[in-house]
Amino acid sequence: MKRSKDAGTPGDAPEQEDATAAPRRTLGVKKQDEAPTAETQRRVGVRARFQPGYAKAIAKSKPAAGDEKAQVRKAGRTQEGGRDAGEAPGRKPRPQAGAGAAAAPRPRRDGGKAPAKPGSERTERRQAASGAPAPRARRGERPIEARPAPRATASPAAAAEGVRLSKVMAERGLCSRREADEFIERGWVLVDGQCVSELGTRIDPNAEITLAPQASRRQSQRATILLHKPVGYVSGQPEPGYEPAVSLIGAANQFDRDTAQPFDFAHLKGLAPAGRLDIDSTGLLVLTQDGRIARQLIGDDSEVDKEYLVRVEGELDDRGLALLNHGLELDGRKLRRAKVEWINEDQLRFVLREGRKRQIRRMCELVGLKVVGLKRIRIGRVRLGDLPLGQWRFLHEDERF
Asked: If you write DSSP's letter for every residue of 312-366 in order, what string do you get?
């Protein structure tokens, strides 16, 4: 086998070198005192990297940070086919800053025409020619005529039509307002023959109101009790050291146990005094579970009169007696007309249609009298009668205030 002189492969003819190709590296033996060429420069070994001053030399030879980043981006675009190294694959290259005037404009799908603002004349002509629907304008750009109209609210006059059903029932004396709400919720109220079961319903004040039989039975089961209250018991809220008058209601103190229904603890549920009687006073006190009776006796428009026997000390002339009948005022408010007359030389009879706190005692003080005893003997058409002190009885079915 014949070996070529210039090549290391046996039997092959030497190939002609391409001038444009990069020079090939060959291994050879370095001759003594021969300077290394650029083509034959060797890489810095690992041992050279640990020589003193190597890091500073490398830092000086490196380009600035901005130039290095620019070179990396340029190399990335070249390597990725013109795409930025930081961009996601498939995206088009971003325009360079400051090159907007020199760069070619991006072609538009609509023929290169910029879209007009909604509602402009140019857009309207284009939509009329193409038949396309009008673009939806933003909320702030919608004309006032196109915005939805606000919801219509009921006028105050319409909302105030009629009167609340519970108020009409209480004014007519059918029941109290609390009882009216209960009856309405249960569907026990008929207005002009129609059942009403919604609270807050307004009706014509002259409408016909009828209670269902269930409501009438409920009212008939509610007890009203007449008590002869002794001195030292409070009629309403208990005071320190004193007992409320309702504590006297029990089987042992029932006066009509032989003729009326027996006492039951259910009679104490919701039992409340209908009117006040001072702790230093005695006489007839009404306690009831029926709201109709309570409103009839203590309502602001009550016309039920109360009769008292009052024992007094002091001198009273004709002018003072006239003032007791009418002309006095308490707490800055004039008192309603009363009927006051002498029964004997130390006792007066009062007939009032209101029950202000300690009213009779304060009236007598204004005219120079001192009350030493006070007893209520009548409320409306119901009298105390022979009811013993400290005992009670039920209101009879035929009794009305």
From this structure: EES---HHHHHHHHTT-EETTEEPPP-EEEEEETTEEEEEES---TTHHHHHHHH
Residues involved in catalysis: 278
Looking up tokens 């046996």, which residue turns up? 10
Phi, psi of 278 (to 5 degrees): -55, 160
Give pTM, 2 decimals: 0.54
pLDDT tens for 339-349 read: 999 999 999 99
171, burial (CB in 10 Å: exposed 0-12, middle 13-18, buried 19+): middle
Q: Which CATH number fits domain 161-220: 3.10.290.10, 3.40.50.720, 1.10.150.110, 3.40.1110.10?
A: 3.10.290.10
Q: Strand pairing of 233-234 and 243-244?
A: parallel
| Residue pLDDT, tens place only, 92-112 | 555 554 444 444 556 555 555
Q: What is the dotted CATH code of the domain comprising 224-394?
A: 3.30.2350.10
Nearest CA to 382 out of 372, 367, 368, 397 is that of: 397
- CA neighbours closer than 13 Å in the CB half-sphere of residue 103: 11
Return the amino acid letter for 18. Answer: D
The domain ranges of the chain are 161-220, 224-394
**Is there a contact between 367 and 324 (Cβ–Cβ < 8 Å)?**
yes
Of 212, 225, 221, the residue nearest 174 (C-alpha): 212
